[in-house]
Write a structure and sequence with these properties.
By secondary structure, this protein is an all-alpha fold. The chain is 74% helix and 1% strand. A two-stranded antiparallel sheet has the order 1-2. Strand 1 and strand 2 form a beta hairpin. Helix 3 crosses helix 14 and helix 5 runs parallel beside helix 8. The N and C termini lie far apart (67 Å). 31% of the residues are buried.
């Protein structure tokens, strides 16, 4: 007769398994250091870019100082440089592009996620994502050969006829203009805003929709009161992504804005942008002051882009924090 089996002691795990679970093996440590190095490269590149721009613009900064931002004169022969028309043109074209692109993009994103038949949702979304991959020079060529003739022959005269009492729609029609550049920027940033907004709206849990519908809301009321507020921080991020693209866009804007160092109240008049002047003049700059002034413009564009993105991150953080506080209160 045999007695009860004695409990066996657990088999100790191999030392290599313990170190792997603890993350202290040589391979894990090497992988960790490689990832750390990769993560540090990005901020290091950002700092290196800023230092190089600051070094290259030192001559212009020491001569013009803050007046470089408020002076409207740009005369390479006389050695007089001011970036106010460039800053004005960059911000104005980006603002108009956002003004037009945001409602259109959000409308398309909401339609594709909430109202469109299943058969067309995926094909349309794929086409939108393909539009984001088209090079800007292609948009520029299309704008020169198709968009500007249409605007000059039909749209601009119609706008001047209906809204000519407003200063922004007065004056001669040139074709290449601030409004033409703004429209091409609108077309270029819409795929980014639409694509990201659609992904964010798709990530909203179905419980949000079902809860609103169960309370008696219509589909539109559910979108307005439950779905869009839930995805608000992601939508803001999509808009800022579009704004960053609009601020830094170069080729298409250079081909359509007219490239004139002037500030005009009329949107039909040519203008200039910071990215366009760098692309046009850097290869032809003959004097150190001219090169330094263009680098100063690049430094301003860099700072504007960083500040806009930092403000966007702060806004998203505040919106997400507010949503989190609201959910806790509930």
């Amino acid at each position: 007769m045999t007695g009860p089996a004695k409990p066996t002691a657990p088999t100790p795990a191999p030392a290599s398994t313990d170190s792997a679970l603890a993350g202290t093996s040589r391979g894990d440590q090497l992988f960790k250091w490689l990832l750390t190095l990769a993560a540090l490269i990005v901020p290091a590149l950002l700092v290196a870019l800023f230092l190089e721009l600051a070094r290259g613009s030192g001559l212009a900064v020491s001569k013009f100082g803050f007046s470089f931002l408020t002076n409207s004169t740009w005369d390479p022969v006389a050695g007089e440089f001011g970036a106010f028309p460039l800053i004005f043109g960059t911000l104005l074209t980006s603002f108009i592009a956002l003004l037009l692109a945001v409602p259109l993009s959000l409308g398309v994103a909401i339609y594709l996620t909430e109202f469109a038949p299943q058969a067309i949702r995926k094909p349309v979304a794929t086409v939108i994502e393909l539009l984001a991959a088209i090079p800007s020079v292609v948009y520029g060529l299309w704008g020169v050969f198709v968009l500007i003739p249409v605007l000059k022959a039909s749209v601009f005269p119609a706008l001047r006829g209906m809204f000519g009492f407003l200063p922004i729609f007065k004056g001669a029609i040139y074709g290449p203009s601030v409004l033409a550049a703004s429209l091409i920027l609108t077309i270029m940033i819409m795929p980014f805003i639409m694509s990201v907004s659609r992904s964010v709206l798709l990530a909203v849990p179905n419980s949000q929709r079902e809860a609103a519908l169960a309370l008696g809301a219509t589909r539109w009321e559910a979108v307005r009161t439950a779905i869009v507020p839930y995805a608000r921080s992601g939508i803001i991020g999509a808009i800022i992504l579009g704004l960053g693209r609009a601020l830094g866009e170069t080729m298409a804007v250079t081909m359509l804005i007219g490239n004139r160092h002037d500030i005009s109240a009329s949107l039909f008049a040519p203008g200039y942008s910071m990215a366009a002047v760098i692309a046009n003049e850097f290869s032809e700059a003959a004097t150190e002051m001219h090169i330094s002034s263009l680098t100063y413009v690049a430094l301003l564009l860099f700072l504007v882009t960083v500040l806009v993105n930092a403000a966007a991150r702060l806004l998203i953080w505040r919106v997400a924090r507010g949503a989190a506080i609201g959910s806790k209160a509930l």
